[in-house]
Amino acid sequence: MPFPLGRPLGVADNPDFQRDVLRSALELLESATEPTIVDYPHEAPEGEGVWACAIELPTPEVSELEASLRREIDLLMPRYEEARRRRGRTTLGMSGAKPEEIDAVVSFAIAVAEGSGFEEIPKSASGPEWIHPMPMLVRFVVEDLRAFYQESVASDNGAAPPSQHDMHAWIFEQTALGRLIKQIAQLISDDHDPRLLFVRGLLIPEGFWEGGPTFGGPPPGEDPREFLIRSRRYLRGQEA
Amino acid sequence: MRNMGKRFDQMPLDSTPFVTPPPLAESTVALITSAGLHRRDDRPFRFADQGYRVIPSDIDPADLVQTQVSVNFDRTHYQRDVNVVLPIDRLRELADAGEIGAVSVYHYSVLGSNPNPALMKDAAADLAQRLHDSGVHCAMLTPV
Fold first, then answer.
1. Chain B residue with the nearest C-alpha to that of A143
2. What's the pTM?
3. Residues from chain A contacting residue B27 (CB–CB below 8 Å)
4. Residues of A in contact with B91 (CB under 8 A)
5. How many beta-carbon contacts under 8 Å exist across A and B?
6. How far, in Å, CA of A218 to CA of A223, rounded?
7. pLDDT tens, A80-115?
8. Min CA distance, A45 vs chain B (Å)?
9. Does the pLDDT of residue B4 top 70, yes or no?
10. Which residue has the higher pLDDT, A162 or B100?
């Protein structure tokens, strides 16, 4: 399928197109006589024009990260609630927090960005039943905030959703959330634990980290496979 | 996806097994997605998780959550419409129209962002057995 990764059926809210993709794949079962690869011949229909956020957020103050983030969330909340009501669902909740616990999600992210560390859950973020161990919980807390922002501004039924690149560009270049994510990523970079760099690679999309590739690698002399094994144990909370 | 597919050229297979399924109109079809989706009360996917999760075909999309670890894929369409990743409504429509025999009672999800998918071999065999035992003839894979 010639679609961006993450969209195997091509495009949201287009049952005819999705049905054609599905039908084309299933019909191969009736025509193929051996393992077969066929390219789907149609590109996914895209929206017209260049996407731009319909709500203007204030320029984030460098010295007031928490206030800026909470102000943005207050501004976006009515749109988020409307999108959630209309669709009957939200993708927020990857960290374990419920949508109504977004204050605790913000408190968590702010505490980490201000240096609470990557080992313990910040005390200021009590309430939600977090479902991941540290440090991976940081990654899903940030993803919950990103989902909140994206659902808020990409919820217009009348237009095609923006591309993921548009979303990343908006978040990282125009919002306090983007500055918060980069601040956490910088703390990871300063930590010098090469295992933690996996989390940076899962926070910052490729192309949006000014320091180069977002993922790190094994320390000099360490076998990459051994490094991956011990990193996996660490990221799954099985090893300090 | 095309660029990712090129990586498989470096993974030669020893054989090319092939099974001719029943006609589509008589086949039960399941979905397997690598989107890292699961029920909200199920176990979240861990980093490099090698297992799979079970999704009932009558699930309310509001009860799904995605703990896929990668940040490098498009979530915007999924946030609007679960069918762009897990086409449960589309499959049901094909069944209602008689184009496929039936929709599987369960669909399945794995973690696509996995540095060593070869380690998923045991889970894959277990899932294949489960599909066979539940009378599924075809599985549609939706990669993320």
1. B71
2. 0.90
3. 29
4. 22
5. 167
6. 7
7. 999 999 999 999 999 999 999 999 999 999 999 999
8. 12
9. no
10. B100
Test the A interface: residue of B8, B72, B120 with most A CBs within 10 Å: B72
- pLDDT reported for residue B100: 97
pLDDT digits (tens, 9 = 90+) for B49-78: 999 999 999 999 999 999 998 999 999 999
Q: What is the DSSP letter of B135?
A: T
Write the pLDDT tens digit of every residue in B19-45.
888 999 999 999 999 999 999 999 999
Find the range with the poorest average confidence among A97-101, A155-159, A203-207, B126-130: A155-159
What whole-number distance in Å separates Cα of residue A114 and Cα of residue A180?
9
Q: What six digits make up the tokens of A93?
A: 């909740």
ipTM score here? 0.89
- What's the alpha-carbon Rg for chain B, to the nearest Å? 16
Domain ranges of chain B: 33-142
What secondary structure does DSSP assign to chain A, as a single string? Answer: --S-TT-TT-STT-HHHHHHHHHHHHHHHHH-SS--------PPP--SS----SSPPPPPPTT-HHHHHHHHHHHHHHHHHHHHHHHT-----TTS--GGGHHHHHHHHHHHHTT--SSS--GGG-SS---S-TTHHHHHHHHHHHHHHHHHHS--TTSPPPPHHHHHHHHHHH-HHHHHHHHHHHHHHHH--GGGHHHHHHHS-TT--TTS-SS--PPTTS-HHHHHHHHHHHHTTS--
Residue of A96, A132, A164 with shortest CB distance to B75: A164
User: What are the DSSP calls for B64-123, one per residue?
Assistant: EEE----SSS--HHHHH-GGGTS-HHHHHHHHHTTSSSEE-SEEEEEBS--S-GGGGHHH
